[in-house]
């Protein structure tokens, strides 16, 4: 359900299970975390994407209610993505919700297709989000809009997401791969130590 495509120093993690809109099981979350941790030693660009018309609907609800919503594996995944020493890009091919949105927030860049939607329905399901997600959301969109999403249950469409800074680029679906490739070019061409240092300096501010 999780596949890895490797092209030199570019690693692409693809969330499968399109028939369930990419709903994440505990095994899938752990798998993404493990691949991301391994990528830190070998890759310069890490791309996260989904299949079909959804990036991921978040946690599989049956597993979420059985304990996945409180599992520390989410923080492990988030820390692995945020700590990746190269350039991480979320290639958002559709809906990104719940814990999957948390994964998106941890990336360096977010590129979405027209028609993508974003929401994080923690209150509706009676869950508390992983501790790092609200802070990352606030850093991107500010405290008011973060509360609108987390506490007001707002669904953010792609145009609004671009306007408020939740995503960095918005492209037609057929141009997503090309856009990601374009953003990856310089990171793949430079030395790993330079890439790592530039990322570190950006993260200090």
UniProtKB/TrEMBL annotation:
SUPFAM superfamilies: ClpP/crotonase (SSF52096). Keywords: Isomerase. GO terms for molecular function: isomerase activity. Pfam families: ECH_1. The keyword Isomerase applies. One of its GO terms (biological process) is fatty acid beta-oxidation. InterPro entries: ClpP/crotonase-like_dom_sf (IPR029045), Enoyl-CoA_hyd/isom_CS (IPR018376), Enoyl-CoA_hydra/iso (IPR001753). Belongs to the enoyl-CoA hydratase/isomerase family. This is Enoyl-CoA hydratase/isomerase family protein. It comes from Mesobaculum littorinae. The lineage of its organism: Bacteria, Pseudomonadati, Pseudomonadota, Alphaproteobacteria, Rhodobacterales.
């Amino acid at each position: 359900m999780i596949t890895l495509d490797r092209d030199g120093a570019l690693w692409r993690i693809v969330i499968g299970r399109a028939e369930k809109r990419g709903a994440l099981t505990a095994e899938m979350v752990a798998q993404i975390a493990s691949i991301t941790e391994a990528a830190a030693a070998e890759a310069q660009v890490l791309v996260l994407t989904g299949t079909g018309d959804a990036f991921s609907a978040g946690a599989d609800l049956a597993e979420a209610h059985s304990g996945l919503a409180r599992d520390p594996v989410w923080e492990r995944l988030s820390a692995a993505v945020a700590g990746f020493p190269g350039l991480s890009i979320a290639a958002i091919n559709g809906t990104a919700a719940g814990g999957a949105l948390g994964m998106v927030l941890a990336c360096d860049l977010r590129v979405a297709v027209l028609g993508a939607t974003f929401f994080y329905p923690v209150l509706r399901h009676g869950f508390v989000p992983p501790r790092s997600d609200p802070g990352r959301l606030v850093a991107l969109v500010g405290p008011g809009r973060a509360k609108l999403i987390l506490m007001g249950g707002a669904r953010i469409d792609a145009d609004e997401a671009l306007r408020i800074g939740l995503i960095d680029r918005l492209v037609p679906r057929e141009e997503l791969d090309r856009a990601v490739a374009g953003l990856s070019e310089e990171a793949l061409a430079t030395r790993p130590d330079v890439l790592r240092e530039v990322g570190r300096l950006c993260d200090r501010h």
